[in-house]
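User: Can you write out an input/output pair for a complex, sequences first and structure second?

Assistant: Here is one pair. Inputs:
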Amino acid sequence: MHGRDGPGTGTDDERLDQHTVRRNNLVRVLEEVRACRARSRSELATRTGLSKATVSGLVTELIERRLLRESGRHHAGGVGRPGRLLELDGSTVAALGVEVNAHYLAVRGVDLAGRVLSERRMDFDTPRAGAEQAVGELARLAGKVLGEVERSGTRLAGIGVAVPGIVDVPSGTVRHAPNLLWRDVPITSWLRRWLALDERHTVVVDNEANLAALAEFNRPDNTVDDLVSLTGEVGVGAGVVTGRRLLRGSAGFTGEIGHVPVVAHGRACGCGQRGCLETRIGLEAAVRAAAPDLIGTGRDPARQARILLRRAEEGDPRALSGLDEVGHWLGVGISIVVNLFNPSLVVLGGYFAMVAAHVLPRATRELRARAVAGQEAACPVTASAFGFTAAVRGGANIIVEEVLDDPCRCPRTGPRGKD
Amino acid sequence: MHGRDGPGTGTDDERLDQHTVRRNNLVRVLEEVRACRARSRSELATRTGLSKATVSGLVTELIERRLLRESGRHHAGGVGRPGRLLELDGSTVAALGVEVNAHYLAVRGVDLAGRVLSERRMDFDTPRAGAEQAVGELARLAGKVLGEVERSGTRLAGIGVAVPGIVDVPSGTVRHAPNLLWRDVPITSWLRRWLALDERHTVVVDNEANLAALAEFNRPDNTVDDLVSLTGEVGVGAGVVTGRRLLRGSAGFTGEIGHVPVVAHGRACGCGQRGCLETRIGLEAAVRAAAPDLIGTGRDPARQARILLRRAEEGDPRALSGLDEVGHWLGVGISIVVNLFNPSLVVLGGYFAMVAAHVLPRATRELRARAVAGQEAACPVTASAFGFTAAVRGGANIIVEEVLDDPCRCPRTGPRGKD
């Protein structure tokens, strides 16, 4: 089983492993510099335990891949020949987040350091347009942002796509997005073709709830390793970050909290079952409970939520009692994710965030009553500050993480200014 | 913020980081040898990218910590001076798994390679005895196993303790174990004192469902990275392995599937709420549905499950219809974990495994109907082969993993035979 060759020959497996080792070492060096724990080649050698020759080769490669740059200053203290200081060269690599929503399309271009380079958003009736036209429109919008990004000298690493539905992540296909009326949409290959992307570009498609959770986790002021983001729109989904990693399961089909059956023989749900949580806290349920005159008016979720909020603020009794009922069932839903995932924080997104003042008091009481592990486990629940932009932010985040976790995805083009 | 000293001096933070780097390198070397990817010092240097001097120091330390040994054979092919081959020396380090159940106590001693060194089990009425007496009895049982383990020349690395309840993992305290009638039991400090353990020994206490999941994941024939273990006893708990790691959340309070409310205004549950899943598929619910004459007879769960099984096999209509109803709600529970965690496999443990033939057909139908991501997500559901021993196995596993993830926990005593 473990056939051995002399050093310097190596089987295919061994070469594969050596590639993995080198990639892991690139990631380690990048992380040390990114966290400002080491800023010269000799410090990197000390920190990582790698030889100076190895570190030097890794740094050269990271500079060629435009992930590090020499800052030009010199190392003042210490023994031996001073070395040039290194810093993250995130400004030359861009990540695009794009989002397909039932009511709008959005694109956001950032660099590796998270600076926004360009951003566009347009109202769009996605279910009406059909998948091919919608993705074509998205590609046009992304193309405009990409043009702006590339004119500033930044190279695209990849695109993270947020979709409200079941996504087959490995193939980049949207399996089923009921609210878009999409089935088996090969969005990755369409975007690749229409944006003329090549194999150096990463395209990741993921569920909007997963990407929203990633955006909440990557907030500069975030201090927790474990959080659940609960997004309320027409559907209800959870994105889970646990131990600083997005929970993906075996194929990315995680966090379908909206279809936990909470009422035996309850109201029919779009999934074909009855009494799902979504039939109690999805936006349609909220409208039915709090503003039944809006049923069937087919408005944008954000607009519907604004009407609910305005009526509640004006003291409309129906709105107040309806949102209180939503608060009860939202609390049931939060208690389920708390009892299963034990996060340090639950962040409410989508329409939940907009009406938070009117649903949180009841929801928090439910959570306290239902947290099996007691009050310590009944973690804080906050409203997202990202409004309806969390998913597109997360789309950009996932590409930034991909690049920093696999620097070889960045083309090796020599240091800035040489090509 | 980033104060810098010359090489060789170093702040406290820097020394801390260097310790982390060395520990990580020890783990990398150990993993390479464990997986048989590298078996000589020069191969390890090639694979890890570390210098030969660094590798040599790491290997010496791992030999002193009795985690590696030289096998005495020589490297035949290749260029340069041949080196001695290395192999995992798991036989000198032992891990104990111990389990507190409402009806029995169990202890299992294994070496790092997973070989069983000694095993003991006794019937015990834990709630009746009270926590202090129960832990005293457990310590006596563990002491016997430990004596047998140490007589064979093996040194204890630590003890993994499985408890059916809410465990505060960092402090090693059982917060609340309703079926044991325990509250705030400092089991770690009691076991440390009564077994005369010192700071070199690890003691980990965890929920039995978590440890059962770890045992299923560590089966030699396991091929999946993501699984959920659903254990049915008086209570119902889920242990989740995701991306090859046990899901812990922020404080270890994960997997409380038994308290998902599935029937609004349903039967009262021990947790204080109504209509929890446990009120439908806990062992008491099964007895109520399938063999109501056994209610209140207070038998050992395994014995009650054997009676249910025998009656179902004999064609008792009440037993068959009752277990079919349990199968329905078990399928609801499985669909919840499938829709939230997207595992590749669900393993049923405890009484579920014993009556699997009579609950699985119905449960599998429910799962197929309720898997939101479609048939591909409706993963296989199997019965555990471990009976009621999964948790004690997982207790030993968690110590083995701790040692291999942090070799510095093994005392540095020189190579075998020198002390």
